[in-house]
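Re: zinc ion structure - here you go.
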Amino acid sequence: MTKGIFLQPANIKNKMVREHLERTIFQAVELNEILRFQPNIRSDLERFYVWGVIPGTKSKWEKSQIGDLVVFYSERKFYLLGQIVDKFHNKSLARYLWGEDQHGRTWEYIYLIDPDSLIQIDVDLEKVIKVLGYSPNFILQSALYHKDEKLISLFTDNLIEDSTKKGDVITTVHREKISTTIKKYKRDPYFSIKVKDNYKNKCAICGIPNEGTVVDAAHVKPVKEGGPDIEENGIALCKIHHHLFDSGLITIKDSKLAISPKMSSQLQKHPIISKFLKKKINLVKTSEEFLKWHRENIFKA
Ligand SMILES: [Zn+2]
């Protein structure tokens, strides 16, 4: 399925845009802050980068979907790429975050970006114009939405892997904060969505459905150990099984839950463990290679 991409002009030479970037992109907005205005968030994250568009751009915003990419644009360059994890219309939240413009409008068609997905890019408008077949004089003045495989790879194939390669555009805005974000190396913004899709949005061990954002896309080999963002290294786990898995108290062997001898007998007897000990785990794309790595390196055998 081709994802869409939202092209978002955000001119860093504009003082107001810069203030908005400082407020909700260069620093994250806590989930609790958003929940005060928007009671239902369809994402399991605790913090978000937030952006929005004014009613005049609503029709473009409406086309975007959860899981789509967004790229920020300024001065003939695209400089940031992130993944949309939720979107909603909320005027009060927009007013609270950014106030109003001189015409009394606010950026009420809001979308949330996964902070871990945000990376710096450096893609010239000319390349985008070429892919889209627009006239060379084309100027990107308001947001656009496209579903175009070629356009997506133009952005994702150009991810900056070397964090020392900082583009001029963004460093002039906010060098430090953004560089800590891009130091996180190349990440796949679709990882979480793909993994949860594979497991039908349920915990692989206990089957609890992802309501109230209780299911995570867990890395079998953790990111900090060099575990890649690929489906083979992902498994959907509820918060409890995720935590036990990461702490090495449980693992998966022969498609079954295995428990560490270090686990207390009290926990061993608890239904969250005991009930699933003999049950076969239906692994979807999760590879034995990474599970083996987990058993040998994380699991407290
Ligand atoms: Zn579970």
